[in-house]
Amino acid sequence: MDPINIGIIGLGNVGMGTLTILTENAQQIAIKLGFPLCVRAVCSRNVAGKALPPGLDSAVRTSNWREVVDHPDIQIVAELVGGSIVAREIVETAISRGKSVVTANKELIALAGAELWDRAITAGINLAMEASVAGGIPIHAVLREGISGDRIGTLYGILNGTCNYILTEIESRGASFDQALAEAQRAGYAEADASADLDGFDARSKLAILAALSFGERIVPSDIYTEGIRRITPVDFEYAHQLRHTIRLISAARQTSDGLILSVRPSLIPQSTILAGVRGAYNAVWVQGRYGADTFYYGRGAGSHPTGVAVVSDLMRVAREIRCGSPERVSPFAHARLGEYLPIPVTLHQSAYYLRFRVQDRPGIIAQLAAALAAENISIDSVLQLPNANWRDLPFVITVEPTTEQSVRAAIARMAELHFLIEPPLAMPMEQSL
User: What's the pLDDT at 336?
Assistant: First the structure.
């Protein structure tokens, strides 16, 4: 049977991993599909210096992506360049040429995925994006089809492998943040400029996509409250362990009676939960449904081969749709159309909180902090202080009973006037519903 022809744009880690899988696993792919996939063109700015896998001698090599998109024989374009400007132009041009698109681009899909899907439907072609979130976990397929009959109430994710690696290194070895980051960079888990990871923006884009899939609403990254992990220290894990918790960068989408609350932030989670066992550069997603209860998905979140598997799986699904289906059979967002929606502020979220202070020790500190909390009707649950001989920089922790994020912020604002504080308090929610 005639093949379905593919053009690959972008030959970085994901692009090369995709090509390796397409060539080395070509026979199994053809057996599963009933027809082969053929790479007819590849594109990269430095394509001349790329050593491509065997079997691609006849493929067009170009540094101009338009030659791939305009190639008359290519039926599916795989956009693997990243970013949101050139990538969007590639995707929109492919759609206008009547070619289906597979993308691994979380940033683009988070910003404009719903609009691109509308364009794709109008053009009668397909848009697939499984590799845009947690490349080694088929979480899109799970939300789109696997548990689509359920009504999702809450989704928790560890969606950034760089941050999870750093946090678990701090936890397991007492490494400083800077040490753990340097090790992540040497291991290839973090870029030289890891700001998008460390400050939570990478996870934010991924949560925007998963929230759209889960709740059927147009979510953009700016809807999501975001904090990074730069302030987490070994002493935070010492205190967390005393509380039988650990710390992870948690991406959370919670459906409440008032609306959807979205956040990406470091949080304390009980050590007894399955998410607490997610270590190193792994990702995980925990979904709580009304009917199907809890389901859990775990795997590598990045890497050329895990993400390449997701890309190739999407190529196979789209190829089947071209050969014998309809691009509207299953929306990539799990809903026929996404609704317009504005999530409610994270300040309405209620939970217990962990407050870590660094102070110059003197009498009356606890009383003054307690007064600031009491002024916002916040009750103290516990006070923890590990032995420390340095009274000029003394860390200790207060945990408070469940209250609103708004109340915690107001109390911290009151504390800003207290001159014994070395830095503003670090506040993290203590997730108990996991």
Answer: 60
